Amino acid sequence: MTALPDDAAVLDALREVEDPEAGMNIVDLGLVYGVEVRDGAIAIDLTMTTAACPMTDMIAEQVHAAAAAIAPPGTTVTVQLVWDPPWTPDRMSGIAREHFGWTS
């Protein structure tokens, strides 16, 4: 049996999911609010830059698929959209800030 990935491995897998409007992965954009691997399940808290994001369903499906791809068969993967606290550019990594030219 394949072992469950740890939180860091799930985050690494989620770096493959890109926000097509931003052209950047969702981890560096700061859209992943939390990852928890526990009791045979993976739970991911995810947000969008805005509640009106037209890509929400597609991104959530890709997040689910990316986590499921590195987990043993039958692992429960839950993706929950959260809106509190609201996303702000402060959540972006240094890589994302450089990508958008927001370095000081």
Written overview of the protein:
This protein is of the alpha+beta class and 104 residues long. It has one domain: GMP Synthetase, Chain A, domain 3 (2-Layer Sandwich), CATH 3.30.300.130. Helices cover 31% and strands 22% of the residues. The strands form 2 sheets. It has a 3-stranded mixed beta sheet with strand order 3-4-5. It has a two-stranded antiparallel ribbon with strand order 1-2. The longest helix is centred in the middle third of the chain and has 14 residues. The N and C termini lie far apart (48 Å). The mean pLDDT is 93.
Spatially, the strands of the biggest sheet line up as: 3-4-5
Overall tally of domains:
1
User: What structural class is derived from the secondary structure elements?
Assistant: alpha+beta
Largest sheet: 3 strands, mixed
Q: Helical amount among residues, as a percent range?
A: 25-40%
Low-confidence blocks of residues:
none
> What characteristic shape results from the CA principal axes?
globular
Rg is: 14 Å
So, CATH architecture? Answer: 2-Layer Sandwich
The percentage of residues in β strands lies in: 15-25%
Tell me the number of helical segments per DSSP (H or I, 4 or more residues long). 4
Corresponding CATH superfamily = Fe-S cluster assembly (FSCA)
- CATH class annotation: Alpha Beta
The termini sit apart by 48 Å
